Sequence to fold (680 residues):
Amino acid sequence: MKSDVLEFHDLTVAYHIRPVLWDVDLAVPEGQLAAIVGPNGAGKSTLLKAALELVPLASGYVRVFGRPYREVRRRVAYVPQRESVDWDFPASVADVVLMGRYGRAGWLRRPGHEDRRLAHEALERVGLAEYADRQISRLSGGQQQRTFLARALAQDADLYVMDEPFAGVDAVTERAIVALLRELRDRGRTVVCVQHDLQTVPEYFDWVALLNMRLVACGPVAETFSHENLNLTYGGHSAILERAATTLLERQRGR
Amino acid sequence: MPDPTLITVMAGASLLGVVSGALGCFAVLKRQSLLGDALAHAALPGVCLAYLLGGGIGVDPKHPLLLLGGALGTAWVGTLVLQSVTRTTRIRQDAALGVVLSVFFGAGIVLLTLLQHGSAGASQAGLDKFLFGQAASLVPRDVLLMAVLGAILLLALAVFFRPFQLIVFDPVYAGSQGIPVRRLEVLLTTLIVVAVVVGLQTVGVVLMAAMVVTPAAAARQWTDRLLTMLVLAAVIGALAGASGTWVSSLARRVPTGPLIVLSATALLGGSLLLAPRRGLAWAAVRRLRNRRRVRVENLLKDLWRLGERDGRYAAPRAVSDVLAVRAAPRIAVDHARGAGLVHVAGPLVQLTGTGLERAARVVRNHRIWELYLTRRLDIAADHVHRDAEDMEHALDDEVIEAIDAALGRPKVDPHGQPIPRGVPA
Fold:
């Protein structure tokens, strides 16, 4: 029996008074390639951020490897959305990948020889070794995404949490990323991805959670990724749900 | 023998440039360029309050440490107000900056006016110098204080360089790594506050923002590395400080602070123009070179096509006939000759060996591209010529080779014209 790597218990998250996640109970088992799917605004990215203690929780709690996130941070690597940063920032590819080492041994310490070696190795694994000195604004979208992946690989984590790793990348990069994710899984690591493209879910992933503010369904792709569940996730009931939740929060917060 | 006062002022102005230049890089990269402006304005009431307080408790109210302390105090309160306004209300950051800037500045002006009409007299107290700056009033103890504060700032910058880099580039990821993002942001803002306050007496609250933004923006033009950018911004800031002071010493009654700001702006202008890769001047040069190349290659192509008619590719042709093909300017022939691509003898022009090779390549590019457009992109044969006219100069051999292979090494283009492969014997 495999243990659960990432658990959400009765989780509710709201931005101001707009609810984003409501009473979500979810557990991702170990060693899976897991996808989180759902329509725009379903709270997919927020779910990841809640796992990493990046957003305040209105209620509920999260466990990573059975512990609060802050205690197991070093075993978790996060790949944010590519558009979340300014790629015109003055840094090279190697600079960005080295950032993956800052959290390991004290963030004031200078990265040492070992850190550089791991960063270089990570760049080789994503096929960007010869781009190490390139300014990041001169990369293609796919190369930028692979730079972010390399930064996560440099952390040498047990759980990888990725926000739309396939968004806006070319076909070659997509294949390279899939191969990499499978390699991670085959080495016993767990990967959780927010995934936008539904068509590739059965091919790329083992396990799926369908989310639309509430959890609709979760489990192995073969059983869970059904027409019925997709209709429930992408159907029109969410407007009513959101209004109900907004009203509730308005009352509670006196606005 | 240089004037010791001038040396003092120059030293102070350069120090200010170093500090605001280096710290300003982070403000600019965080897209908070106007933060420096709001902070500088928010410092004004603090200066006045400190003066009042000093008079009240019987210490020298004009002591620089006291006045800087006051400036730091209200500037810091300003940032706190700014952060809490953006976090708890729906007012956006730009609007909040505007509000903080004007409220604090207004309060400062009120205090300044009250002091001016009070018994002490603010102009007597010299507080109005904080408004527009008065570099000439710098004395060695002011410069010493600036140096000490500057050293502390640069030391802090050296220690926290990596975490600052990370929280400015990707704060969300930094948070996931357990780096205390909010506390580091407060620290960084505090350092920027100190940098701004260091320059107040010299440049004044109104113009201080320019010293935060301008050297950083200028430095960004020259480099793609953060550390290099910091060092360059510090150097540019120091240059602006020293040169502004020097220029103002040449003429009487020209205020130093504004001249420092103008020097910094001139350095920014120069950087925008001259910096390699990003500079406008280099872009213009590149455009000019490209246009010249296109002209020369068109001339070679026209010579080649004349050769196709009678099979004598390297035969001499009348210059006027060749130019008439596309009404090309005579200068194209001169440039081609300069590059060793054609021989010119009197009214005749003919391709050299390298000219032949180059002509064959341009014609090949043109025809292969036309074929690619018609075969692979389903564009009508009579629509592809214009596009190929541009692409023949831009395509490199690698791309052409890939297309050529994909098309199965074709012999003729969509118009039935032969695709040259190498130079005719």
About this structure: Strands of chain A lie at 4-15, 18-29, 33-37, 59-64, 76-79, 159-163, 190-194, 207-212, 214-220. Chain A has a mean pLDDT of 88. Chain A touches chain B at residues 49, 52-54, 70, 73, 76, 78, 80, 84-86, 89-92, 95-96, 99, 102-103, 107-108, 110-111, 135, 137, 151, 161 (CB under 8 Å). The first strand of chain A starts at residue 4 and ends at 15.
